[in-house]
Write a structure and sequence with these properties.
The chain is α/β, with parallel strands linked by helices and 579 residues long. It folds into 2 domains: 26-256 and 545-570; 264-350 and 365-384 and 412-538, Carbon-nitrogen hydrolase (Nitrilase/N-carbamoyl-D-aminoacid amidohydrolase, 4-Layer Sandwich). The protein has helices at residues 25-28, 30-49, 65-69, 76-94, 105-113, 115-131, 150-171, 191-194, 197-200, 202-229, 237-255, 283-300, 323-336, 398-403, 438-446, 466-481, 535-539, 542-578, and strands at residues 264-272, 308-310, 340-348, 361-369, 375-380, 418-421, 425-431, 451-456, 485-489, 495-497, 503-504, 519-527. It starts with 24 loop residues before the first helix and ends with a helix. The model is unreliable at 1-8 and 10-22 (pLDDT under 50).
Length: 579
């Protein structure tokens, strides 16, 4: 049979795998850039929305998902920039209340705090790129979506959560520390989850939240890949791993022993003057503050049979040694005959080693006075607020003191004083920002405190959400140590926090419910003679420290791999030149 010569049909070319030098324009176009920026900003805003003033805690469980869903940039510097956008969009909205102080304090701090989420994103995406070196796809998806193997997805969830908690731990102490609004703080209204804090601190909740976000993002990538390939999404190991993570939480809900019953109650009158912050001292401001606190105490202390009166931090803008202040408090003590715990700036001249008088020092102190105006005990604030109570390196940079400093250079305390109060109560007193640092409350409890107190002046931030955010930090100090905590605020959020973390009788305007209110509240603080010490009080931030060690290992791995690549590329270039 005759045949006709037919032209050969071209053979379809096999798909070319992506290599390091291939054009990645489809990953860096302006559309992809816009999507990445949208994902980063959405994650930052969702994080902020979980905290006051919006305070919608469900957002915290999905806040990291948007930035994990968008493809990670192909280069290190682009990932660094995208991570910083994510961190800054969260920090600048979450800390906007700090701008009430002036000079853009919230924005300046946000520029620094943004570096911590940025570090997490860079490390996590670097780890994902390392695991994707064995190319599973002809056209791999960068980031979390590039992991097909279930074991790698599960490992990414656990290591990503470790990285987040380890970086939170770093933020808690680096440059004096800023442990404000960690992920877990958003769950302050979850009593079942708060039980975990007695064992792990807030780090346990942060780990769970980060793990849930990572597992959800991995599952959504599975659905996306299955839809693209026309297949069904298979079994999810990260979601199965979440069930194992939540088993201890469920066990604590049913097996953990409840806090012990109180042996007695300490009746405390907490006075809240709600006086705007005095930026420049005047005699009129001083007299108004003094009259307000003395008047509220006289009207409420005697008739209600209280055992102790508490005034907040710097309730009156003058040191207690100021003659008019001292005389007014002396007359008040003679009238009420009730111990008074107050916050004041105290000037003292400690003796030197040879017994001679040294230079005068100033302290932010809590002082306990009896009915005869004797100072029974005092506590000097250990952790000062940078730029508010001292200027770091102020001796070397005087211009910085002039620009940012508030005219104060307070001396830090060295002793964690426990006050002996009526009804055999032993109190550790946090002054303002100190209740954001769990180690300070732990130190008080380890020295025998059976109750905690916070005295604070949040009037610096006017009627913003700053005081509300500050209150949420104190909830975790009570839950971690299983001690009741009485919070005495200058302008708002005076309340009692029980050992389970629940807030009792916040002081509010009786007609409007507004928290910025001038008044006084009476609180029956439960006192136990020998309350048990929690696991967290004994062992501290063991989980956060463990996560920090894992994070350090990841950093060493990534740095080592980057060094190996750079060295290989350099050898290759030298070989090309030699040829």
């Amino acid at each position: 049979m005759p045949t006709t010569d037919q032209p050969a049909q071209p053979t379809p070319a096999a798909p070319t795998p992506v290599t390091e030098g291939q054009n990645l324009r489809h990953l860096v176009g302006w559309q992809r850039l816009a999507i990445r920026l949208l994902g980063a900003v959405a994650s930052g805003l969702l994080l902020s929305a979980a905290f006051p003033p919006i305070e919608f805690p469900l957002f915290i469980w999905v806040a990291l998902v948007p930035i994990l869903l968008v493809p990670a940039p192909p280069t290190f510097w682009r990932r660094l920039a995208l991570g910083w956008v994510f961190g800054f969009s969260h920090a600048v909205t979450n800390l906007f209340w700090l701008n009430e102080i002036g000079f853009g304090a919230g924005v300046l701090l946000a520029l620094i705090i943004a570096c911590y989420p940025m570090l997490w994103y860079v490390l996590f995406t670097g780890l994902l790129n390392l695991w994707r070196e064995e190319r599973d796809d002809a056209n791999p998806i960068p980031g979390l979506g590039g992991l097909r193997r279930p074991s790698r997805q599960l490992g990414a969830m656990l290591l990503g959560a470790c990285l987040w908690v380890g970086i939170e731990w770093l933020r808690g102490w680096l440059f004096t520390g800023f442990p404000w609004n960690f992920l877990g703080v958003a769950l302050w209204q979850s009593p079942a989850l708060l039980r975990l804090c007695a064992y792990t601190g807030v780090a346990g909740l942060s780990f769970l939240i980060a793990a849930v976000n990572l597992a959800l993002a991995a599952r959504l990538h599975d659905f996306r890949r299955a839809w693209r390939d026309g297949q069904r999404a298979g079994y999810s190991w990260p979601l199965a791993g979440l069930i194992l993570l939540f088993l201890p939480v469920l066990a604590l809900r049913f097996l953990a022993a409840p806090p012990p019953e109180a042996d007695r109650a300490l009746r405390v009158l907490a006075v809240q003057g709600n006086i705007p912050q005095c930026r420049e001292w005047t005699e009129e401001e001083f007299q108004t503050s003094l009259d307000t606190y003395v008047g509220l105490t006289r009207d409420n202390a005697g008739p209600k049979g209280v055992d102790l009166v508490i005034w907040p931090e710097t309730a009156v803008p003058a040191p207690l040694g100021y003659p008019a202040y001292y005389q007014a408090v002396k007359d008040l003590q003679a009238y009420t005959e009730i111990p008074l715990l107050l916050g004041t700036v105290d000037y003292r001249t400690p003796a030197t080693a040879d017994g001679a008088a040294g230079s005068e020092l100033s302290f932010n102190s809590a002082m306990l006075l009896d009915a005869k105006m004797n100072a029974l005990d005092y506590y000097d604030k250990v952790h000062r607020v940078p730029f508010g109570e001292y200027v770091p390196f102020g001796r070397f940079f005087p211009w910085l003191v002039e620009w940012i400093g508030m005219g104060r250079d307070l001396t830090p305390g060295t002793e964690y004083t426990v006050f002996d109060l009526p009804k055999e109560a032993r109190a550790g007193v946090n002054i303002c920002f100190e209740d954001a640092f769990p180690g300070i409350s732990r130190a008080f409890v380890q020295r025998g405190a059976n109750i905690l107190v916070t005295i604070t002046n949040d009037a610096w931030y006017a009627e913003s959400c700053g005081s509300r955010q500050h209150l949420l930090q104190a909830v975790f100090r009570a839950a971690e140590t299983q001690r009741p905590l009485l919070r005495s605020g200058n302008n708002s959020d005076t309340c009692l926090i029980l050992p389970n973390g629940s807030i009792v009788d916040p002081l509010r305007d009786p007609e409007t419910g507004y928290p910025f209110y001038r008044g006084a509240g009476v609180y029956d603080v439960p006192v136990c003679d020998n309350p048990p010490t929690t696991f967290y009080t004994r062992h501290g931030d063991w989980l956060a420290g463990l996560c920090a060690c894992v994070s350090a290992g990841v950093i060493c791995l990534l740095v080592g791999r980057a060094y190996t690549r750079c060295r290989a590329q350099r050898v290759a270039r030298l070989g090309e030149k030699a040829a």
